[in-house]
């Protein structure tokens, strides 16, 4: 089995960003995507300013793809509402459109893209993967970018977590003019929902909720949430959406501290930030770009150093996002948060800035490679 120079498992933003940067650096990158074509994803409709900057550096113009500009955050808890200006311009874009643009860009700059191929297992010692048809492929380096999905042989170690993972749900609602330029965050017990306009004018609804609240099923959960969040219920016209996409076992706050030689864990395989912070896509793009640049400058042996640096870099933003998520999970914390933001709205912008993980790559001085632009 002859290895390829760089093997990337996962065709989402992290994997595609890594493939683009590797191809630009002259590294023959092979990107494996389990989806044969365009598809939706539960998370990732919000593009913060740092994600937009990273996309521009990758050669993707989100606004040209139809992304809807967002300049304000509308935070709702029960009947209470606070509206705040974001510190910089953001946008809303479906993952279907974003992922296709990134994969197309990776192919255009020279990466080999294999679509519709499901990877069943990995061998970290050999930096190899096995497809569901038994075929195997090895890489000089293996970039793990499978998002929230585990890969046998390289599954994330979640055994030391004190908190059970959360569940994510996504549905599409009819758009309305009052969502223009705004992302709405609806807070309720042990969860929250985000609502924004997509490029086609529909509204993307994403919910994060403690997994135990799903014990009675989605219909029962949504009935409870609509009672707790009447303004969200009004957005849904009092009716449950006909279709939900779901993912279970989302370990918010998790970060990997170490990796095997030649294995780069990027995106949610390296660090999982609460979606309340809106930084998931930026972290995916930034980690993919940074890891690719580190590999191009330092080879497979730089993986362990890079992973440790990314762990340190993401510690404070993810810690702050976790504090906000946990604080908003209960009625006392939500009430305090809403009062603080009403009295001192500047705190919202400051919190948004503190939960960002810069797209600028780690280890840039040691590898000598060019850094990706991003906010300081």
Question: What can you see in these coordinates?
Answer:
- This protein has an eight-stranded mixed beta sheet with strand order 3-5-4-11-12-13-10-14. Strands 1, 2, 6, 7, 8, 9 and 15 form a seven-stranded mixed beta sheet that branches.
- It contains ten helices and 15 strands.
- The chain has a domain at about 5-70 and about 90-160 and about 250-330 and about 355-365: 3-Layer(bba) Sandwich (FAD/NAD(P)-binding domain).
- It starts with a strand and ends in a 9-residue tail after the last helix.
- Helix 1 (about 15-25) packs parallel to helix 3, helix 1 packs parallel to helix 6 and helix 2 packs across helix 6 (about 280-300).
- By secondary structure, the chain is an alpha/beta fold.
- The protein is globular, with a radius of gyration of 20 Å.
- The model is unreliable at about 360-375 (pLDDT under 50).
């Amino acid at each position: 089995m002859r290895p390829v120079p760089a093997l990337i498992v996962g065709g989402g933003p992290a994997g595609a960003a890594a493939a683009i940067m590797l191809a630009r650096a002259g590294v023959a990158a092979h990107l494996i995507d389990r989806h044969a074509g365009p598809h939706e994803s539960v998370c990732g409709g919000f593009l913060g300013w740092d994600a937009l900057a990273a996309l521009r550096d990758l050669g993707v113009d989100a606004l040209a793809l139809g992304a809807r500009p967002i300049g304000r955050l509308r935070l709702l808890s029960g009947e209470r509402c606070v509206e705040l200006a974001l510190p910089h311009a953001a946008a809303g874009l479906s993952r279907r459109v974003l992922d296709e643009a990134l994969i197309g860009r990776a192919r255009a700059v020279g990466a080999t893209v294999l679509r519709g191929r499901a990877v069943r297992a990995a061998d970290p010692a050999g930096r190899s993967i096995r497809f569901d048809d038994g075929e195997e492929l090895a890489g000089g380096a293996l970039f793990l970018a499978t998002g929230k999905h585990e890969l046998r042989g390289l599954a994330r170690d979640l055994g030391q977590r004190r908190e059970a993972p959360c569940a994510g749900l996504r549905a599409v609602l009819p758009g309305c003019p009052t969502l223009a330029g705004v992302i709405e965050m609806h807070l309720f017990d042990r969860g929250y929902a985000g609502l924004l306009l997509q490029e086609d004018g529909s509204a993307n609804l994403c919910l994060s909720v403690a997994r135990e609240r799903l014990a009675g099923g989605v219909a029962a959960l949504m009935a409870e949430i609509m009672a707790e969040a009447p303004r969200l219920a009004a957005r849904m016209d009092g009716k449950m959406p006909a279709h939900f996409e779901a993912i279970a076992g989302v370990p918010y706050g998790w970060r990997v501290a170490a990796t095997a030689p030649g294995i780069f864990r990027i995106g949610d395989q390296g660090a999982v930030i609460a979606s309340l912070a809106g930084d998931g896509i930026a972290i995916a793009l930034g980690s993919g770009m940074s890891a690719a640049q580190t590999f191009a400058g330092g080879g497979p042996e730089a993986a362990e150093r890079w992973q440790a640096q990314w762990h340190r870099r993401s510690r404070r933003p993810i810690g702050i996002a976790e504090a906000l998520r946990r604080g908003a999970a209960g009625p006392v914390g939500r009430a305090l948060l809403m009062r603080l933001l009403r009295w001192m709205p500047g705190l919202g912008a400051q919190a948004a800035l503190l939960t960002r993980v810069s797209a600028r790559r780690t280890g840039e001085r040691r590898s000598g490679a060019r850094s990706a632009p991003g906010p300081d």
